[in-house]
Amino acid sequence: MSACALDIICETAMGVSVNAQDGQNIEYMKAVHEITDSFMYRVIRPWLYPDFIFKWTAYGKRFTANIRRAHAFSRKVIKNKKLEMEVRSKYSDVGLFPNENPSHSRKQKAFLELLLEYHFKDPSFTEEDIREEVDTFMFAGHDTTAMSLSWTLYCLGQNPKIQQKAQEELDQIFEDDNSRDITREDITRMIYLECAIKVCKLRLHPAEMIENTRHGSPVRCFN
Question: Which segment of the chain is annotated as a signal peptide (predicted)?
Answer without folding.
Answer: none
